[in-house]
Amino acid sequence: MLYGILAATAALLLAAVLTALLRTLALRLGVLDRRRARPLPLLGGLAVVLATGLVAGAGEWTGYAPLGDGVGELLVAGSGVGLLGLVADVRRVKARFLVVGTAVAAGFVVPYRELGFGVGLLALLWIVFVAVAFRALDHADGLVGTVGVLTAFGVAACAAVEVLDGLAVLLSVLAAALTGFLMHNWHPARIALGACGSLFTGFVLASAAVVVRTGYELASSAWVLFALTAVAGADVVLVVVSRRLAGRPLSRGGPDHLAHRLRRLGLTARGAAVLLGAGAFGAVLVGVLAHGGWVGESGLWWVAGVVGMVVLGLLRVSVYGPRRPPAVQSAQVRATLRVRNG
Description:
Elements: H1 2-29, E1 32-33, E2 40-41, H2 44-62, H3 71-90, H4 95-107, H5 112-115, H6 117-137, H7 143-161, H8 165-185, H9 194-213, H10 218-228, H11 230-246, H12 258-264, H13 269-292, H14 297-315, H15 326-340
Antiparallel strand pairs: 1-2
């Protein structure tokens, strides 16, 4: 217990210091997220990966908090996904390479022996989905860090119920590292998590949740896993449906995520992050209670119903603007070319 408190404190402070140092490095190297209204330096995710790995690794090395069978491999695989995301932050990498790399890493942590090949394949796909969902959730100040902290504590509580102490320690250290990062990422953010940190966070959380639910019935596990990651999943569903209805390519970005739409409704940046954080807390709490057997399937249905209503409601928020006829677009392009050519 005492070591857990010390480890979390160390991870928080280490992440906060590393984030400040790496922000300066990112500015010097020009590693910036230019998708936002104001470019933000990246490499915040590298601070989270390093703080989590160093503190958890120290516990394993000293023997004060051994991670246990499979947890060390999970951390190594997650670090590999974080490294892949770091490459994407520094250089432009196509999304499919991130997906494939994440799937390969997930293949090393899925417990096929206990789950079987068919269910193991579903678990692998779900891990990839959650990792990509957390990557997409990194579209607003403080959002992915807040949701990540709450989810990490929730999955850690589930691990504690299963007496998976090493996994619970790893998740607590991750939550503390994300908290240290949030000291620099809360609105107005001075640094972003980037693909490195968001993919790492989503991968570790999803993989840990799969390990925790191994041995349980498939249907009930699916509901619990859904509740633990409801906000990230809702964001992906909202964006995919919205772009399909608008006839836009899925790969084409836009201000159509959860926080973007809440801002359109009049919420501040901090207000949107707090509201979505509250939603994540409620869903994670239901997931933890359901895992422990204190809440039946009705509670999980409530989470699904709320998520569905939120998605349907936010779909009505206009985010793309009026469509211009092709003739108008062509005329504007020709006019722009004439101005550039003098």
